[in-house]
Amino acid sequence: MPDKYQPPNKILFIQNLPENAGKDALEVLFKQYPNLVEVRTIPGRSNTTFVEYVDATSSGVAKDALHNYKFDGKHKIKVTFAKQ
């Protein structure tokens, strides 16, 4: 399972999303940070997703900015580097 102690890489693992967090809303949120490649949702697991950037530097900027972000005003999302 990915956690905050994974080494930096270009893919982020997002947890604790609300059930109604759609892919479009996540793309809008993560596009605020340059070099987004894609948002990949996990079928059957609406509270987790993967977000890929061009490189580890870009993903690190998004991770630092969005970890503990209140997605819908209530759910603090957990943003970590994905396990490679």
From TrEMBL:
SUPFAM superfamilies xref list: RNA-binding domain, RBD
InterPro entries: Nucleotide-bd_a/b_plait_sf (IPR012677), RBD_domain_sf (IPR035979), RRM_dom (IPR000504)
Keywords: RNA-binding
Domain spans labelled RRM: 10-84
Gene3D superfamilies: 3.30.70.330
Keyword RNA-binding listed: yes
Pfam family, any one: RRM_1
Listed GO MF terms: RNA binding
Protein name: RRM domain-containing protein
Protein species of origin: Puccinia striiformis f. sp. tritici PST-78
Taxon lineage: Eukaryota, Fungi, Dikarya, Basidiomycota, Pucciniomycotina
